[in-house]
Design a protein that fits this description.
Layout: H1 14-20, H2 22-42, H3 44-65, H4 71-90, H5 94-112, H6 117-138, H7 145-170, E1 174-176, E2 180-184, H8 185-204, H9 211-242, H10 257-278, H11 285-290
Antiparallel strand pairs: 1-2
Helix pairs in contact: 1-7, 2-3, 3-4, 3-6, 4-5, 4-6, 5-6, 6-7, 6-10, 7-8, 7-9, 7-10, 8-9, 9-10
Length: about 290
């Protein structure tokens, strides 16, 4: 039985808040995790198609959310640019794929009209960055592609799940109440720490893991967890900017694909960028990410 509040109504405990949306959130998470892991295991074009579908859903949500003119032209035109970029990337034309996204962003900015140009173009870059990043890490990388995505899954999912439980069960001071009233410093610290540890655990269990790399990889996992949380705040800021609660209602307990993948998009782009900088080219992004 919950304790009464000052107004006479039962006070909501952290455990009660946790239970209200746990069931649909957990069920949808299990389905998405199973689908993502299955696509990762199969690899190749199946993996690309899975993430391309997610990117197109995010593109639809973003272009709907900003409520700019010419929605159909923006959505279908942007979708065509994303598909073309993925085809070029799959064929090894990485520079061509990035050029297509740049041209697509300019085109959507023109279609967005006054006041929405930057938002329309940025949405295409945001959605495309997801499928481009994971394709570079898993499909185009000649070695360590599966391990790179598994590490990314462990870090982002560990951060997201443990931040949720840590924030709901521990409570305490809010992290950034103006953008996300439910997030706390306790949840942030628990989530990032657990995400870094889970990512490291995935690599420790890999045969032939190099002990010298574990320290830098743990730090990298912590950074990726922080960036994942920043991606969550970024998406919250966008929704607050346009006065919506959820990007859509496609995923029970989570809202839309943007709501579910905001942290993963940011962390995947970060991982791909780090791997690219450290590697000798697009065929070695996963090696650059994981070998220190």
């Amino acid at each position: 039985m919950s304790e009464p509040s000052e107004g006479g109504k039962p006070a909501t405990t952290p455990q009660a808040r946790l239970s209200t949306d746990l069931a649909p959130r957990a069920a949808s998470s299990v389905v998405m995790i199973a689908a993502a892991l299955s696509a990762l295991w199969v690899g190749g074009d199946v993996f690309i198609l899975f993430w391309l579908a997610c990117a197109l859903a995010i593109h639809w949500e973003w272009q709907t959310l900003i409520d700019a003119p010419r929605f159909r032209a923006r959505f279908f035109g942007g979708a065509a640019f994303i598909v073309l970029a993925v085809l070029l990337l799959r064929s090894g034309f990485t520079g061509g794929a990035l050029l297509v996204i740049a041209v697509g962003a300019e085109t959507l900015a023109w279609l967005g009209g006054p006041g929405k140009r930057v938002w329309a173009g940025a949405g295409l870059v945001y959605a495309a960055s997801l499928v481009i990043s994971v394709t570079l890490l898993r499909v185009l990388s000649r070695i360590d592609g599966m391990e790179a995505i598994l590490w990314l899954f462990a870090v982002v999912w560990g951060t997201d799940i443990m931040a949720y439980f840590g924030g709901r069960l521990i409570g305490g001071p809010k992290l950034w109440p103006r953008l996300s009233p439910s997030k706390t410093w306790a949840g942030f610290l628990v989530g990032v720490s657990c995400g870094g540890l889970l990512g490291l655990l995935c690599l420790v269990l890999k045969p032939g893991a190099e002990a010298a790399s574990l320290g830098p990889l743990f730090v990298l996992g912590l950074l990726a967890g922080v960036i994942a949380q920043a991606g969550d705040f970024f998406e919250s800021w966008i929704k607050r900017r346009f006065g919506v609660k959820d990007s859509s209602r496609l995923i029970p307990g989570h809202g839309g694909f943007m709501d579910r993948l905001d942290g993963f998009i940011a962390a995947a782009a970060f991982a791909a960028l780090v791997g690219w900088i450290k590697s000798a080219g697009p065929g070695f992004v996963a090696i650059g990410l994981l070998r220190w």
